[in-house]
């Protein structure tokens, strides 16, 4: 994200609710997920892109250099932090989507060389500039929905140069767009066809060539692996993630998405920062995540879009004391949505999370999962002024009215980026 500072200050006044998420300086667990730190009828004052005051007494800070925004009785929230996305890819998969609407399954399509591989083929054939251009288009979509930070994975290149190309596109997007990107290397997203009969060599390519290059060019903060039967086994995932740790990368994992394949347990054993998906994780897996302090990142958009009814066990995870995160999993195959509003709706209707729990999971908890809990994810003095006025009088409407865009004005570092 570009970091030019504002010379003018910003005051947002006349809010029905300022949903601050103020609280302990750590991810929220248990009943804390329901405590949003709401200030009724308040506002927000921003100087040089940082929050200076929250709540009441905003008017007294206003001077001739202040841009004053009248929220008109709407709610203001921190910008959403989307902690799991795949936002750089070429083309769409509408053809496969249509096939699935006729009954084909995601796994069947993947097995015959479609799925992730069809996006890899198109992404390999695209230039850096083309990927940046489509990435900018999707950045607009995120901002329009009230998202101001995304974790962004590579994973549609699956060769040294193509993975680097995607990570460079992410770096350029972060510099050129008001959206903040946190880059993750996902060379272990799928075994490319040229390595199908020699998987070990692809794992070695990741460990010996891709990871050192990614680390040397400082192109990623995290490394992720799609740990799943028929994709990367737990042994292969262990090798890749252990090597990534030696290069100083934080660890994330696609775990137990399509089957109970030992992903959550491996995440706990490795002490990854997050374990993502977890649709098939059982009680033992939940206990292991708790023991190791791993944050679950739940992705109901992919469950919905794959036509499944197997949502992750969010209630059990909250009851077990896990610091739950929700994210879109935006990608062209299993979850073609950048909409956090959609995720809030799914969390409430299908995962029985209250609107407050879901809001915490897409703001402060998500920020901590990206090692940015001290900068974003809540509206508190000293934090970056990523904030959104939503066209609602009560924050619960964000999960209740579905199929609409609620974000009315979106501010990234105190600067209007949509609205
Ligand atoms: O998170 N699970 C693996 N990766 C993505 C799907 C990517 C794709 O289908 O292109 C996911 O669901
Ligand atoms: Fe994913």
Name of the CATH architecture of the largest domain:
Alpha-Beta Barrel
User: What does the overall shape look like?
Assistant: globular
Strand content: 15-25%
The structure class reads alpha/beta
> In the residues, how many domains can be counted?
2
List ligands, each type once.
N-(iminomethyl)-L-glutamic acid, fe (iii) ion
CATH class of the largest domain: Alpha Beta
CATH topology of the largest domain: TIM Barrel
Mean pLDDT: 97
Distance between the termini: 18 Å
CATH superfamily of the largest domain: Metal-dependent hydrolases
Question: If you had to describe this structure to a student in words, what would you say it looks like?
Answer:
There is one protein chain. This protein is an alpha/beta fold and 419 residues long. It folds into two domains: 9-78 and 378-418, Urease, subunit C, domain 1; 80-369, Metal-dependent hydrolases (TIM Barrel, Alpha-Beta Barrel). It has 15 helices and 17 strands. The strands form two sheets. Strands 6, 7, 8, 9, 10, 11, 12, 13 and 14 form a nine-stranded parallel β-sheet that branches. Strands 1, 2, 3, 4, 5, 15, 16 and 17 form an eight-stranded mixed β-sheet that branches. Strand 3 and strand 4 (50-55) form a beta hairpin. Helix 8 packs parallel to helix 9. The radius of gyration is 21 Å and the shape is globular. The two termini are 18 Å apart. 55% of the residues are buried. Fe (iii) ion binds at residues 84, 86, 254, 329, 331.
Topology, element by element:
Blueprint: E1 9-19, E2 38-40, E3 43-47, E4 50-55, E5 66-78, E6 80-85, H1 94-101, H2 106-111, H3 116-124, H4 128-144, E7 147-153, H5 160-176, E8 180-188, H6 199-216, E9 222-227, H7 234-246, E10 250-251, E11 254-255, H8 263-270, E12 274-277, H9 283-292, E13 295-298, H10 300-305, H11 314-319, E14 325-326, H12 340-350, H13 355-361, H14 364-369, E15 387-390, H15 397-400, E16 407-412, E17 415-418
The protein binds N-(iminomethyl)-L-glutamic acid (NIG) and fe (iii) ion.
């Amino acid at each position: 994200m570009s970091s030019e500072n504002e010379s003018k200050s910003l005051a947002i006044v006349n809010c029905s609710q300022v949903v601050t998420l103020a609280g302990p300086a750590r991810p929220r667990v248990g009943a804390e997920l329901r405590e949003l730190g709401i200030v009724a009828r308040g506002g927000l004052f921003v100087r040089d892109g940082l929050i200076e005051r929250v709540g009441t007494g905003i008017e007294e800070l206003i001077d001739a250099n202040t841009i004053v925004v009248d929220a008109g009785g709407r709610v203001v929230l921190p910008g959403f932090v989307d902690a799991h996305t795949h936002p750089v890819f070429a083309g769409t998969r509408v053809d496969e989507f249509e096939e699935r609407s006729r009954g084909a399954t995601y796994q069947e399509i993947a097995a015959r060389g479609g799925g992730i591989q069809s996006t890899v083929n198109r992404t390999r054939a695209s230039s850096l500039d083309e990927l940046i251009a489509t990435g900018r288009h999707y950045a607009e979509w995120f901002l329009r929905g009230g998202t101001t930070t995304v974790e962004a994975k590579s994973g549609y290149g699956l060769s040294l140069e193509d993975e680097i190309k995607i990570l460079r596109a992410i770096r350029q997007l972060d510099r050129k767009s008001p959206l903040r990107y946190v880059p993750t290397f996902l060379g272990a997203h799928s075994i490319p066809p040229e390595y199908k009969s020699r998987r070990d060599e692809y794992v070695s390519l990741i460990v010996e060539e891709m990871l050192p290059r990614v680390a040397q060019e400082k192109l990623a903060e995290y490394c992720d692996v799609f740990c799943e039967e028929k994709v990367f086994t737990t042994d292969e995932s262990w090798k890749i993630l252990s090597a990534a740790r030696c290069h100083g990368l934080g660890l994330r994992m696609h775990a137990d998405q399509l089957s109970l394949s030992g992903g959550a347990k491996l995440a706990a054993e490795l002490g990854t920062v997050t374990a993502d998906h977890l649709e098939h994780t059982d009680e033992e897996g939940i206990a292991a995540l708790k023991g190791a302090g791993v944050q679950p990142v739940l992705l109901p958009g992919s469950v919905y879009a794959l036509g499944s009814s197997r949502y992750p066990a969010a209630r059990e995870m909250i009851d077990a004391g896990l610091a739950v995160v929700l994210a879109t999993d935006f990608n062209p195959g299993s979850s073609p949505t950048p909409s956090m509003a959609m995720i809030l709706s799914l969390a409430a209707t299908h995962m029985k999370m209250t609107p407050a729990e879901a809001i915490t999971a897409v703001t402060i908890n998500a920020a901590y999962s990206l090692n940015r809990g001290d900068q974003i994810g809540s509206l508190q003095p000293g934090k970056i002024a990523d904030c959104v006025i939503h066209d609602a009088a009560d924050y619960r409407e964000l999960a209740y009215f579905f199929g609409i865009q609620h974000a009315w004005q979106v501010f990234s570092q105190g600067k209007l980026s949509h609205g």
